[in-house]
Write a structure and sequence with these properties.
The structure is a single chain. By secondary structure, the protein is mainly beta. It has four domains: 92 residues, RNA Polymerase Alpha Subunit, Chain A, domain 2 (Beta Complex); 103 residues, Beta Complex (RNA Polymerase Alpha Subunit, Chain A, domain 2); 91 residues, RNA Polymerase Alpha Subunit, Chain A, domain 2 (Beta Complex); 88 residues, RNA Polymerase Alpha Subunit, Chain A, domain 2 (Beta Complex). A hairpin with a 7-residue loop joins strand 10 and strand 11. The termini are far apart.
Length: 433
């Protein structure tokens, strides 16, 4: 038996070695050794080493990530992004100088199943950490809204849970913050409600000064666990066709009087709280422009005034002008000599003469005003259809012109002042074959 085992012993040993080499080659071919690299965000531990000294720290976003290189079999080192954890332990600070602005902390990898630490390399091996004094400041919270409420509503009042907020953190960061904004989305809102607001920290230019990642170095005192703040939103209802009453002060020049006052537009839309809208309804859904804003003292010509509606409809009184509506009101005061009256003539009724064969005319306005003088009884009898208006466009070529309007009146009436109209002449297309 022993002789059989030793027969061709050398050949048998060579066969075994060959089999091992073939297995190793096959194994290496199917599961080769590779070098995998991963970008890993660094976690900070034991930061009380700094904060217990009434200091705080900050790591730039660019320094929060390191590259981890892992050597090993493909099956062990591939697709390990979620397994590799990089840690900066503040107890391992290379050199802690109380007066230092920057210190360096070694980065280590937590033990990871299937990965041998001697086959792991990290770049960079240390990260810079800025050390600063702690600063606490108080800021007023303003509310910003995004989106549009349901049709027929506007945002009336938005009251944050806290009017002011205290923020504690690195001195350099705190000093950059100039405003704190709570942003809520009001898209489709049709009822008063409480909304959760995201907090933004802005600089003097209204730009975000602190990223979401950098907020971990700050303590925004009083916020909810998720870093948001509640905001109470009151909706105001929009009411259309609100009339405008205009009062005026002063006396026109001798021999003149205020004939009429018109506004453009004639009616406006108003948004308000329910209490304020009730008060407005009690006034006949009419707002009044106070006499102090329209002064006709000594005037012998028409006056125009552009009234900003937000000066009349104030939020503290429960009113506002919807953002998508006109924000101003044009008031026109007609001042005429005694014994005269205004008549409005449609430009479509103006007779045109002298128009070139190859031209067409368009008016830039829908009507013109004609002022006529006469006795009170005569003016009462005069009708718009009794007034004949015409323009002469002889020798006019294509272009825009301000031309006089010739007015024909019945006997006994006198035109008070000249009337002008703006016309545009354009060439007609030649349709001949």
């Amino acid at each position: 038996m022993k002789k059989k085992l030793t027969n061709n012993l050398s050949l048998k040993i060579v066969s075994v070695l060959a089999a091992i080499l073939i297995w190793l080659f096959a194994s290496s071919a199917s599961d080769p050794v590779i070098r995998a690299d991963y970008t890993v965000k660094v976690e900070v531990t034991n930061d009380d080493y700094i904060t217990d000294s009434n200091k705080t720290y900050q790591i730039d976003d660019d320094d929060r990530e390191v590259t981890v290189y892992v050597n090993g079999k493909t099956s062990l080192v591939s697709n390990r992004e979620n397994d590799i954890v990089a840690v900066a332990d503040m107890h391992q600070i290379v050199e802690m100088d109380e007066n230092a602005d920057v210190v360096y902390v070694p980065v280590q990898i937590k033990p990871t199943r299937g990965i041998t630490m001697k086959n792991v390399d990290i770049y960079p091996k240390t990260i810079p950490v800025s050390i600063e004094d702690v600063e606490t400041k108080e800021f007023v919270v303003t509310v910003n809204t995004t989106g549009v409420p349901a049709n027929g509503y506007v945002i009336g009042e938005c009251e944050p849970a806290m009017e002011k907020i205290s923020i504690r953190g690195p001195e350099s960061t705190i000093n950059k913050i100039k405003s704190v904004v709570a942003t809520i989305n009001v898209t489709g809102l049709s009822n008063d409600s409480k909304r959760s607001a995201k907090i933004s920290l802005l600089d003097q230019n209204g730009e975000t000064v602190v990223t979401e990642d950098a907020k971990e170095y700050l303590n925004l005192i009083g916020l909810k666990d998720d870093g948001t703040m509640d905001v109470d939103v009151d909706l105001w209802r929009v009411v259309d066709n609100i009339k405008v009453k205009v009062s005026y002060s002063g006396t026109p020049a001798q021999g003149y009087e205020v004939d009429k006052i018109t506004t453009t537009p004639e009616t406006i839309a108003v948004a308000g709280s329910e209490e304020a809208l009730v008060k407005l309804a009690d006034k006949g859904n009419t707002i009044e422009i106070p006499a102090s804003l329209i002064n006709v003292e000594g005037s012998s010509q028409d006056l125009e005034a552009n009234i900003k509606l937000n000066s009349l409809l104030k939020e503290e009184d429960g009113y506002k002008v919807p953002e998508n509506m006109t924000q101003s009101l044009l008031v026109r005061v007609s001042i005429l000599p005694y014994g005269s009256k205004e008549f409005e003539i449609d430009t479509g009724d103006i007779i045109i003469s002298g128009l070139g064969d190859n031209l067409k005319v368009m008016f830039n306005q829908g009507s013109v005003i004609v002022r006529v003088k006469g006795t009170e009884s005569e003016l009462e009898e005069l009708k718009t259809k009794d007034i004949k208006a015409s323009v002469d466009l002889t020798d006019k070529v294509a272009g825009e012109y301000s031309v006089p309007v010739s007015i024909g009146l019945p006997t006994g009436y006198e035109q008070v002042e000249n009337t002008l109209v703006t016309v545009q002449l354009a060439k007609t297309e030649n349709t001949s074959g």
